Amino acid sequence: MKRTIFILATLLGMGNMSGVVAQNIENIIPGVSIENFNMNRNGKYLTVEMELHLSALDVDANRAVLLTPRLVNGADSLDLPAIGIYGRRRYYYYIRNGISAISGESEKSFRVSKKPEQLEYNNPILYEDWMNGATLKFHRSDWGCCQEILAEYEGIVGRHREAFFPELIFVQPKAEIMKSRSLSGSAYIDFPVDQTVIYPDYRRNTVELGKIQATIDSVRNDKDVTITSVWLKGFASPESPYKHNTELAIGRTAALKKHIGQLYHFDDGIIQTDYEPEDWTGLRRYVEQSNINHRAEILALIDSDMEPDAKEAKIKRTYPDEYRFMLQHFYPALRHTDYRIDYNIRTFSEVEEIKRIMAEQPQKLSLNEFYLVAGKYEPGTDEFTDIFQTAVRMFPNDETANLNAANAAIRRDDFGTARKYLDKAGDSAEAVYARGALTVREGDYDMARRYLGKAKEMGLEQASRTLDELDARQK
After folding, report:
1. Has residue 47 been placed in a domain?
2. Measured in Å, how far apart are the chain's first and last C-alpha atoms?
3. Does residue 392 belong to any structural domain of this protein?
């Protein structure tokens, strides 16, 4: 997004105008008018744009006219590429003497007979601090023979004044000693009644076992990843005696452990198991989300302190129709195995490698690695912003990720996005300061002072400096 900087355009005979575009600057110097003047700061560059009208500019045959935009601030100045208009005899004089242009190679030159009536001028220059507050002047010099300047004219086009942009504080996240991640899911493996033997081709077992295998394979085949554990937890549904369900949950989980062990030959201790004889939590979730009759009463029984067998028997006896419905529609989903694959990702330290990983598999990166690569880009650029936005997508609830993404958005004057991230950035001194910086950019200086004052009270030195600068600019 292009950031437009506030310009104070001072026009000859017109007093002061505030804005970024100045229209119809008639005869700023003899023979030249300007329209659509604009100066924009975008990252490292300050761009000067204007439309020059030259139809009234007349040049004698033995003369040359040099038009030079000049940026001036005190003792500092910079001449931008000039436009040269050459009379016929003066043009051929320079050609015979091997002179391509008066001001050098960057000059845009025309014979007077070929000069355009209207010329679009667009020139970016590398921004330097002294340019804040600089005045853009338009200079005309008339040249005669022997490189003699016969006359000079100068008019003021406008002034570049940087908007107040508080220094933003990007917080470096703590480096992870070990980048530990996990993938998890649930598989619904069918067993024949009262059996604990896995038959891979039985009913939907090919698909359900495939889910676990695909999750393991997604990290096992990655050279940057080391699997640290495969965790399995088996559940049974509440029908049948609790003791029997306990045996089924243990046996079926052990069968799955054996099946995975035969496929992958993991080291001892990698596959870990747990079990829950009856998944009452899952049953409660299904009942709560349903519209079956006596839902409240059934939920009360599920939540009661009764023994599992007595609880299930009372639901079956008291609400037989609803029980049959649950048995058919809810209970099959309660016979499942939850699984989680825990793994470590190696650390990346080379910037080029981090860039590649961010483009291909950003989930492998830590917040600190995102931060390190962001430091290689100019704040406000698309690349810089994209890094912090990618980081917050990977860590959507992390306060530091949200704070840095908010700062990146403020840097581009994307205030709506900044507010969204600041809502999840916490209440650290840096987050409070960022809210102050945002309200400065929005022009709400009273609210900005409240935030900055609070950040100052919390011990953030930059808040004090920003308050002083804000006060100085408001005088």
Report:
1. yes
2. 31
3. yes
